[in-house]
Design goal:
about 40% helix, DNA-processing protein DprA, DprA, DrpA_SLOG, two-stranded antiparallel ribbon, Rossmann fold, single chain, 9-stranded mixed beta sheet, alpha/beta, 3 domains, elongated, Arc Repressor Mutant, subunit A
C-alpha cells in the first residue's frame, strides 16, 4: 500500500495503528492482498530502518508527537470517493526546523514552466511573507516552487519543502543545492520512507500535505491540467484559504488560475500584504484599500463639488443658472461659490462665474 491510502488512514484513526496492521494481514484468499502485504512487511526491519534514518539526521514524526502538525488530522474527513488521501501515518523529516512552526505558514505553488511574470510575482509575495515572519511551504520542484523557496531564503525567511520522494533523495537534480540547504538549515518533509523514488501518484499525495500543513495556498501560475490545481482542490476540501494571482488572459500558464477565479474558487491576491490579510488572525495585517490620485477638488464639501460641476470653464454663468442646474436653492449655490472663490477654485467678474485657471 502506498502512503496516501485513505482506507489505511481511516482504519488507523478508528482502531489504532497496531490493530489496523493486524486487520490488514488477515488472510484473504480471494485477492491475495494480505499475502502480498505480509511478504513486503517481512522484508522490513522497522527498528533498523529508524536507526539508519536517525544516523542520517532523519526523524519520523507520528500523530501524538509534540512536533506533529495537527492540521494534517483534518485530511481524514477529506478522503476522496476512490479512497485516496487521509492523514499520513507519519512524516519523515530532515532538518532542524520543528514542524510546529508551520502553524501560520503559507503554501506557494505553481507551474514548473514559470514565466517572467510568474517569477516576479512569486518572489515579491514570498519576500513580503518572509519579512513578516511567515514561513513558506512549497514542493521543491522547478519553476514557481524553486522561486518561492529561493526568494524566501534571500529575504532571510524560513521555508520548507514537501517532497514526493524520500527526504534522503534529491529530486529534481537541478535543485540539489537548494534541497541540501533546506535539509541543513530548515526542513524537507515527506510521507515516503527514505530511499523512495518520486512517482506521479506520490506527487498527488504530496500535494495534500502542502495544503494541510499551511493556513492557505497561493497559486501563482498553472495551466488547465497543472498539478498545482490538485493542491488547490485539497485546500478547498479542508477549508483552507485559496489565493490566486491572476495572470494575462493570453498566457497558457495562467489559464488554470484564471479559470479558478472565473468559477469563484479563490480570492484574488496581487501582493504579499493581501496574502497576510487572508491568513492572519482577525484584525492583523489589514490592507488599506487603494485610492486614486488625490486632486485639489477632493477637499471640497459635497455641496461645493455639486456646484462646481456646473460652473463653466471658459464661458461665464450667472448664479441662478448654476443653482438650477445643480438642483440647489440659489442662496445655497451663492454661498458655495463664494467659499470656493476664497479657496481659489472659481472666479467672478462682470459677466458671471467660471472655473479658475489650472483647477
Amino acid at each position: 500500500m502506498e502512503p496516501g491510502d485513505g482506507t489505511t488512514s481511516s482504519l488507523v484513526r478508528q482502531i489504532g495503528a497496531v490493530r489496523a496492521l493486524e486487520q490488514s494481514l488477515v488472510a484473504t484468499s480471494e485477492t491475495g492482498v494480505a499475502e502480498q502485504l505480509a511478504a513486503r512487511l517481512s522484508e522490513v526491519d522497522p527498528e533498523r530502518r529508524l536507526d539508519q534514518a536517525a544516523r542520517c539526521g532523519i526523524r519520523f514524526v507520528v500523530p501524538g508527537d509534540p512536533e506533529w502538525p495537527v492540521g494534517l488530522d483534518q485530511l481524514d474527513p477529506a478522503i476522496t470517493k476512490d479512497g485516496f488521501g487521509g492523514t499520513p501515518p507519519g512524516l519523515w523529516v530532515k532538518g532542524p526546523m520543528p514542524l510546529t512552526e508551520l502553524g501560520r505558514s503559507v503554501g506557494v505553488v505553481g507551474s514548473r514552466a514559470a514565466s517572467v511574470y510568474g517569477v516576479e510575482m512569486t518572489r515579491a509575495i514570498c519576500a513580503h511573507l518572509a519579512a513578516a515572519g511567515v514561513p513558506v511551504v512549497s514542493g521543491g520542484a522547478l519553476g514557481i516552487d524553486f522561486e518561492a523557496h529561493d526568494a524566501t531564503l534571500r529575504a532571510d525567511g524560513a521555508t520548507v519543502a514537501v517532497l514526493a520522494c524520500g527526504v534522503d533523495r534529491v529530486y529534481p537534480a537541478q535543485n540539489r543545492r537548494l534541497l541540501h540547504h533546506l535539509a541543513a538549515e530548515f526542513a524537507v518533509v515527506s510521507e515516503q520512507p527514505p530511499g523512495s523514488a518520486p512517482t506521479r501518484l506520490r506527487f498527488l499525495a504530496r500535494n495534500r500535505l502542502i495544503a494541510a500543513l499551511t493556513a492557505g495556498t497561493v497559486i501563482v501560475e498553472a495551466a488547465l491540467r497543472s498539478g498545482a490545481l490538485n493542491t488547490v482542490g485539497w485546500a478547498e476540501a479542508i477549508n483552507r484559504q485559496v489565493m490566486c494571482v491572476p495572470g494575462p488572459v493570453t498566457s497558457y500558464t495562467s489559464q488554470g488560475v484564471n479559470h479558478l477565479l472565473r468559477e469563484g474558487r479563490g480570492t484574488v491576491v496581487t501582493g504579499g500584504a493581501e496574502v497576510l490579510e487572508l491568513v492572519a488572525e482577525a484584525g492583523e495585517h489589514l490592507v488599506e484599500e487603494p485610492r486614486g490620485e488625490t486632486r485639489p477638488r477632493d477637499s471640497l464639501t459635497r455641496v461645493e463639488q455639486q456646484v462646481i460641476e456646473w460652473v463653466p470653464v471658459t464661458e461665464r454663468a450667472q448664479v441662478d443658472s448654476i443653482a438650477r442646474l445643480a438642483g440647489l436653492h440659489v442662496r445655497t449655490a451663492e454661498g458655495a461659490l463664494r467659499r470656493m472663490r476664497e479657496k481659489g477654485f472659481v472666479v467672478l467678474d462682470d459677466h458671471g462665474w467660471r472655473v479658475a485657471p489650472d483647477v
